[in-house]
Amino acid sequence: MRLRVDLLPHGGYPDVVLVVDVLRATTTAVAYLERGAEGLLLTRTPDVALALRPEGDEGRSLVLGGERGGLPIPGFDFGNSPVEAAAQNFTGKTVVMNTTNGTDAAHTAAQTGKHVLLASLTNAHAAARRARSLATEEIAIVCAGTDAHVGLEDVYAAGVLAEYLLALGEFSIDDGARIALTIRRNAGNPIEALSSSAHGERLGGLGLGEDVRYAAQVSTSTLVPVLAAEADAPEGTLKFVAG
Amino acid sequence: MRLRVDLLPHGGYPDVVLVVDVLRATTTAVAYLERGAEGLLLTRTPDVALALRPEGDEGRSLVLGGERGGLPIPGFDFGNSPVEAAAQNFTGKTVVMNTTNGTDAAHTAAQTGKHVLLASLTNAHAAARRARSLATEEIAIVCAGTDAHVGLEDVYAAGVLAEYLLALGEFSIDDGARIALTIRRNAGNPIEALSSSAHGERLGGLGLGEDVRYAAQVSTSTLVPVLAAEADAPEGTLKFVAG
After folding, report:
1. Is A150 in Cβ contact with B178 (below 8 Å)?
2. Do residues B81 and B92 both lie within one domain?
3. What NCBIfam families does the entry give (chains A, B) (predicted)?
């Protein structure tokens, strides 16, 4: 079995893909499903998200969450905050998500991956176990990064996932996995690593330090968002459900 | 002053760029110039390299060096081996180089960079000092990687360069630099890091382990290949001279 860590999305994934965008898309995705959402629709653009809301949807069966540059998108109901998500009840609702990097990474993964899962630090152990049980040839951990630059927080989380996976079985590992493991073992504890990342610093500057602390919790959830059969999802979206 | 490490070529470099392809293009480039070559012409494709050789160039004022998949290119005079280069005398010759990743990275750097230098472990200290003396706003260390995947050997070398730079002055650093510094400090000595990289292992398997050991020497040369004024170079090539 191969274990591969792409420090930025690359494509060409043949088997299981774990998409990682710790600050904050995949952390928030886990929180939405933890709080009862029936599913998540990840769109490539904010416009696709806005177009999904039916006219006069007073019951708000669809809620929109997302960000650009860390800030909420006009017309959306929620930002991309796991703290905000964890304080709400989404029972019976579907959350449409669009974020700067995480949703793109998920779309890249879905082009070829047989099984696409969303992973964060908060669900790291469960995500690693699920990936191991599904994989037949390769597990690829894909770091979303920030605007095509490698993000320390995602590489750190990839190292945490890789450590769990190596404890579950034998893998041949690539240079990306070697780098992620070295970062995980030498970049401090999760809150230190996430806070010192450029993205963590920016969120702190925007008054969103609580989200960074939330995202630094390790394996507090057993919920793994799993890409559902495509037939189920509107065009241009990926539907994830609790797995 | 900003210090930025791109674990893969990204583009958009405003100031000084250090291009790193330790196994083996930038290491070999230093060796060619050490052994007397007047200049290096880096081409984007092997065909551009072959077309540069004049008909009936018996004196061989132009020699061709390069590789694909680690092996010499048909019609070329040399592979991409620093050991081979270091054993020859290139006085009075210009070397046309084309390699799988390093020459592409140099072309990406040259699109916007004001000063483009080639760096390896062998010239790391000299390259860092030269970069520092030229820079006015940013030094970008650009890892060539291998076929769009991050290479441990390049990230390690970027960390060595970053350490030298941090000893030369104050920098604000990005996540790529943080990652490279952590790898440099925790991935063993140079020969361990290069040998354990996927690319190092492949070269070893091709019988090119001597090249890996050569490339793992740190700061044995004070020669820094510097991109020369473009007017001097044939179309589609970049000309580097000893700086």
Report:
1. no
2. yes
3. PRK14100.1 (NF010700)
Contact B154, B144 (CB under 8 A): yes
Q: Shortest Cα distance from B222 to chain A (angstroms)? A: 29
Establish if B34 belongs to a structural domain. Answer: yes
List the beta bridge partners of residue A18: A117, A141
A71, A164: one domain: no
Give residue for tokens 């070329």. B76
B65 with B112, same domain: the answer is no
Predicted pLDDT of residue B59: 59
The answer to whether residues B109 and B37 belong to one domain is no
- The residue among A109, A115, A215 whose CA lies nearest residue A157 is A215
In angstroms, what separates the C-alpha of A235 from chain B's closest C-alpha?
Answer: 30
Q: B204 to chain A, minimum CA–CA distance in Å?
A: 16
How many angstroms separate the CA atoms of A218 and B89, rounded?
58
Task: Give per-residue pLDDT as tens, B188-235.
Answer: 999 999 999 999 999 999 999 999 999 999 999 999 999 997 667 888
A54 & A116 share domain: no
pLDDT tens, residue by residue, B80-102: 999 999 999 999 999 999 998 99
Cβ A10–B149 below 8 Å, yes or no? yes
Domain assignment present for A222: no
Interface of B with A (CB under 8 A): 6-8, 10, 148-152, 155, 174-176, 178-179, 182-183, 185-187, 196-199
B202 shares a domain with B112: yes
Lowest mean pLDDT among A57-61, B49-53, B147-151, B223-227: A57-61
A142-184 pLDDT per residue, tens: 999 998 999 999 999 999 999 999 999 999 999 999 999 999 9
| Residues A117 and A171 occupy one common structural domain | yes
Q: Determine the Cα–Cα distance for residues A66 and B155; give it in Å rounded to an integer.
A: 33
- Contact check, Cβ <8 Å, A175/B6: no
Number of domains in chain A: 2
Name the residue range of residue B238's domain. Answer: 28-100+228-242
- Give B-chain residues touching A201 at CB under 8 angstroms: none
> Rounded to whole angstroms, how far apart are CA atoms B224 and B130?
8
What ipTM was assigned to the predicted interfaces of this complex?
0.93
CB < 8 Å to A197, chain B: 175, 178
| pLDDT above 70 as % of chain B | 98
How far apart, in whole angstroms, are the C-alpha atoms of residue A190 and residue A218?
8
